[in-house]
Design goal:
This protein has about 550 residues and is an alpha+beta fold. Helices cover about 50% and strands about 20% of the residues. α3 (about 65-80) packs parallel to α4 and α10 (about 340-360) packs antiparallel against α11. Pfam families: GGDEF_2, HTH_30, PucR.
């Protein structure tokens, strides 16, 4: 929308110079904003017209031009956003053609019959004076509103105080939604419940994925259906660090929304952005202190660990409670801008905070650019064994709303007694993320569910695993590679089907005799017998080691 801080066509009709003039068409467009006035006798002026102009002319061209040319003039003026047209009809024609009147009415485009004795220059002069006086008045009002908003900021006011100032000055309903806050701030008090409910529903629809405008860093203006009436809605983004952190909504229920209102919303958006930036800065400082504490607590350096334990009471953490670590690791975000990542992490952080409050859990959260650390603490009154799975299930649902499925993994460590042992739960959670694919888990992996991988994934065992693999399964892998056979796949299916040869054949789509031949070749190449329980166990473990070593 082009900003128009002038007057309306209705204001023009109230000027003394217009007392003998009358509106003959397009009365529904009298609230069209007028920013300037233009005068012409040439119907080809369309290329030079701007939105917000009030055009003055005579009916001379209407007398000489074809009716389609006249309709074309009215139609194109309306499409370009011209506020209206004043035509000195008499003495050029007795009246404008009825088709012109109908066209203007359909387009809500005002046509004013200018009294034949009134000079167009007088009208032009008076309109310019009215526009100048109106703009001067609006500038004074804007300056006053700016002072009120600055007073809110300097006196430590909150977003609700900004909304109150804007609502009082615009006289229209105001709603502010900040993305990292669950609640909305509203200036709707004087509206009946049905209207308030309709506005809340309308604002909610804006955030539906179909709208696709939530992340746009630009002003949005539409006509909305509110309680059966078409109402203009303005939506101003709140931009912090080049990212959209929320929006200000306003609906033209009481007075029209124009350039002045747009200027007020812009000022309010900047003011709220300062408050959001302050909140983000405070949270960043808090997170930095938490991150330093967490790094010391998880360190294997005893001096750093002792330093962290001494600070535990500052963060209201007990020494003897039970603790579990949950890690959220962000993945496949290489091309994402750092500011976008930080915003997503901040929003997820708030989601986790609300989830912890909902479940009445004590959580200690640390955000990083590559993920989030969550430390849950439990006293003897609460049993964590049901609460942790519930927390993780809801956490995954929250993450799925913010991220794609391949953009995150959640690792859950075991529960340990005492703050000094929480580093063990962290190691568990890290290994769960690394090893989750080995047991077929994609996004949420509990260390306790890793089975034998809990043992095999120990870093100190890597050399032994390499040796074990080389003397058990590696010859079979090499044979497959050289001969283009599928003996390793056959062996994996053998364990999957618990040694049932019929199921194994069905699984591999092979003849029973072919299956027997493959199993014999496996035994010949590895030197191990599948009917020997020790050899059978060693080959099964070797398959698991193969996955760990990514051979």
């Amino acid at each position: 929308m082009k900003r128009q801080n002038g007057i309306t066509v209705d204001d023009i009709m109230k000027l003394k110079c217009m007392e003998n003039c009358k509106v003959i068409a397009g009365a529904n467009g009298l609230n069209n904003p007028v920013a300037k006035v233009n005068m012409t006798v040439d119907p080809d002026i369309l290329a030079w017209l701007d939105a917000g102009e009030f055009l003055l002319t005579t009916a001379y061209s209407f007398k000489t031009e074809d009716i389609e040319v006249q309709k074309n003039l009215i139609t194109h003026c309306a499409q370009k956003g011209v506020a209206g047209i004043g035509i000195k009809v008499y003495p050029y024609v007795e009246a404008l053609p009825e088709e012109i009147i109908e066209t203007a009415n359909q387009l809500n485009f005002p046509i004013v019959d200018i009294y034949h004795e009134t000079p167009l220059s007088d009208i032009t002069s008076d309109i310019f004076k009215e526009i100048f006086n109106k703009q001067a008045s609006l500038l004074q009002r804007l300056e006053k509103i700016h002072e009120q908003l600055m007073h809110v900021v300097l006196s430590g006011g909150e977003i609700k105080d900004v909304v109150r100032v804007v609502h009082e000055n615009l006289q229209n309903p105001i709603l502010v939604k900040i993305e990292h806050q669950e609640e909305v701030t509203m200036g709707l008090n004087e509206y009946i419940k049905d209207t308030s409910a309709s506005l809340l529903s309308n604002y909610t629809r804006f955030y539906d994925s179909m709208e696709n405008k939530v992340k746009e860093r630009k002003f949005n203006e539409t006509i909305e259906l509110i309680n059966g009436q078409r109402v203009r809605r303005m939506v101003m983004p709140i931009i912090v660090k080049n990212n959209v952190y929320g929006h200000i909504f306003s609906w033209a229920l009481k007075t029209p929304l124009g350039g002045f209102d747009l200027s007020v919303l812009e000022t309010a958006s900047t003011t709220i952005a300062l408050e959001v930036l302050k909140q983000l800065s405070i949270r960043d400082v808090e997170n930095r202190h938490r991150a330093e504490f967490m790094e010391d607590l998880l360190s294997l350096d005893m001096n750093r660990k002792e330093k962290a334990l001494e600070k535990a009471t500052v963060f209201k953490l007990g020494y003897d409670q039970k603790y579990a670590m949950i890690l959220i690791q962000l993945e496949n975000i290489g091309d994402t801008m750092i500011e976008d990542i930080l915003q997503k992490v901040a929003l997820i952080n708030n989601d986790i905070d609300r989830l912890s409050t909902e479940l009445k859990l004590n959580s200690f959260i640390v955000s990083k650019t590559d993920g989030i650390y969550i430390m849950l603490s439990f006293n003897n009154e609460k049993s964590p064994y049901n609460i942790i799975p519930e927390f993780c299930n809801k956490l995954e649902k929250l993450l799925s709303l913010r991220l794609k499925k391949d953009e995150y993994k959640i690792g859950i460590g075991r529960l340990y007694n005492g703050l000094s042992k929480v580093y063990k739960s962290y190691i568990d959670a890290s290994k769960a993320i690394v090893s989750g694919g080995l047991i077929g888990e994609e996004n949420v992996v509990y260390f306790e569910k890793l089975g034998i991988y809990k043992i095999l994934c120990q870093d100190v065992l890597k050399e032994e695993l390499e040796k074990f693999y080389s003397v058990t399964l590696e010859p079979l892998v090499e044979y497959d590679r050289k001969k283009s056979t599928e003996l390793v796949k056959t062996l994996e299916s053998y364990y999957f089907n618990n040694g049932n040869l019929k199921k194994l054949s069905d699984d591999l789509y092979t003849h029973y005799n072919t299956t027997l031949y493959r199993l014999q070749r496996i035994q010949d190449i590895t030197g191990m017998q599948l009917d020997n329980h020790k050899d059978r166990l060693n080959l099964e473990i070797a398959l698991k080691i193969k996955r760990i070593l990514k051979k």
